[in-house]
Amino acid sequence: MWNIDQAYIDGAFVPVQGSERLEICNPATERAIGTVTLANREDAKRAIAAANRAQPALARSTRAQRIDMLRRLEAAVLARTDRIREATIEEYGGPLARSQWVSNYASQCFATTAQALRDYAFERRLGEATVVMEPVGVAGLIAPWNAAAGSICSKLASAIAAGCASVVKPSELGPLQAQAVTEALHDAGLPPGVFNVLLGRGSDVGDEIATSAGIAKISFTGSTQTGKLIARAGVDTMKRVSLALSGKSATLVLDDADLAATLPLALNAAFMNNGQACVAGTRLLIPRVHMKAAIEQVRAAAAALRVGDPRDPATAVGPLASQAQFDRVQHFIRRGLAQGATLVAGGEGRPDGFERGWFVRPTVFAEVRNDMDIAREEIFGPVLSMIGYGDEDEAIGIANDSPYGLQAYVFSSDAQRALRVASRLRAGTVLVNRIAPELAAPFGGVKQSGVGREFGVFGMEAFLEPKTIAAADGIA
Ligand code: NAD
Fold first, then answer.
1. How many separate domains does the chain show?
2. Distance 225 CA to ligand 1 centre (A)
3. Which pLDDT value is given to residue 476?
4. Is the model's pLDDT at 222 over the cut of 60?
5. For ligand 1, is residue 145 a contact (CB within 6 Å)?
């Protein structure tokens, strides 16, 4: 049994002052596997004070010193990859391959950021001025439960590269993952206060971070709804905010695409991470002339997807993270049926043979209109909507007709055509004939999917601000 009752403040694990206790359950069995005692506002104030003490020295640190810190973090997290993977499976039900990927990514993002930092021009000449990129100040890093390890490490890497100390608030719904990552980060032996980690409620610890005058910048990943609260809460102290928010990605299959090669990738994009992914491609746009064939292929592929024990390498879809997630997905499946979509695969309830665990049936709807709830709202579970279109312009119109714009996918046998379509899509990222991300490139959303970018150079710049120094002739 896990018992998590400490926060990481000023370089040490210390007992939290908060007293609220939550039970941690394994979503595959619904059995309790531990408890977490949440930090409170007072703990947050201590963490913010510690980060502020560390900030001046970190801001003065050299490029070489920061690269050294990132390398040490990379090695420390790499050494704990297995533990992070196990926490991801046990607490969250992430399938083995995905959990392994997330754990590997947690260490890799320090390496990618170190690479970006190596060549970065902190100083440049513009006209008669010297422009210096300076750290923005102490940062609050607020992460969701569905990508806990990666989100924490990627934000921390960017903050350190820029010279910003931080207070990290992982989701209270992902305590094992946060604990495994924090133990790894501690092993890197960074100066006390450079990063502090505490698990607490958003309305309490999160709000303290969002409103404190001791925090200059918030880097938030989570739902659009919470992102708006944070942006509003931060305005009085004029916080800089980066918001990585919800998505409702479109997968455009052009009429020249090879369906047999494309549809398995499209299903993978829809159901990755048990469908609990901001980048899940949940609207599958198919030319009407190919719809009948596509439905038959998708039906067969969905039926072949193995739902079950996330530790089994053959499992494609594990349990959802919680009963709340299970209930949410059931609600949207009922909505789809009520609004007249046609069920192609899956449906309400648990898959046959499952009596316990938050397992749902991977579900595909056809004859979905883009104004139905299942096409407009982020469901955050394995529910895919197939939408028919006539020509390329109509497909682009449907894809862009969404409040969200995080990541889109285009499949075609004509690379030039696919790139032309990609250029017309309103999304932060467009992946062409692939579903694997490029981690050196910026990641973030347009419209209600967010503000600002993460990863690599752009992720680091989100923690920097330009200062202009222009001197009279003869001085500089
Ligand atoms: P959430 O918005 O409920 O919570 C995210 C974090 O915000 C948690 O740590 C939570 O405790 C905190 N929080 C809640 N209320 C707060 C407040 N008032 N002030 C400060 N902090 C507060 O999101 P979630 O359910 O944990 O994550 C799922 C959502 O995140 C989905 O919408 C998904 O699309 C999105 N997401 C986006 C990305 C991306 O990169 N764009 C990546 C992963 C997840």
1. 2
2. 8
3. 55
4. yes
5. yes
- CA-only gyration radius of the chain, Å: 23
Amino acid at position 289, single letter: V
Cβ of 450 less than 6 Å from ligand 1: yes
Q: Closest ligand 1 atom to the C-alpha of 449?
A: 41
Binning the chain into helix, strand and coil, the percentages to the nearest 5 are 40, 25, 35
Q: Is the CB of 378 under 6 A from ligand 1?
A: yes
- pTM score of the predicted model: 0.97
Q: Is residue 335 part of a domain?
A: yes
Are 333 and 434 in a shared domain? yes
- Residue 133, in any domain of the structure: yes
Residue 312 is given by DSSP the state: S
Residues 95, 73 share a domain: yes
Q: Tell me if 127 is assigned to some domain.
A: yes
**In this predicted model, what pLDDT tens digit does every residue of 102-117 receive, in sequence order?**
999 999 999 999 999 9
Choosing from 217, 225, 226, 449 the residue with most ligand 1 atoms within 8 A of its CB, the one to mutate for a pocket test is: 226
Is residue 474 situated within a structural domain?
Answer: no
- CATH, residue 7: 3.40.605.10
In which domain, by residue range, is 173 found? Answer: 2-245+449-468
pLDDT at residue 377 above 90? yes
The verdict on the CB of residue 336 being under 6 Å from ligand 1 is no
Question: What integer is the mean pLDDT of 380-400?
Answer: 98
* 462, 434: one domain: no
b/e sequence 443-470, b meaning 16+ C-beta within 10 Å:
bbbbbbbbbbbbbbbbbbbbbbeeeeee
Q: What is the CATH number of the domain that holds 404?
A: 3.40.309.10
Q: Length of the chain, please? A: 476
- Using the predicted structure, report yes or no on whether residue 61 has a pLDDT greater than 60: yes
Q: Measured from the CB, is residue 146 less than 6 Å from ligand 1? A: yes
Claim to verify: residue 65 and residue 133 sit in the same structural domain: yes
Question: What is the 125 CA–ligand 1 centroid distance (Å)?
Answer: 39
Q: Which amino acid is at 309?
A: D
Q: Which amino acid residue places its CA nearest to atom 31 of ligand 1?
A: 223
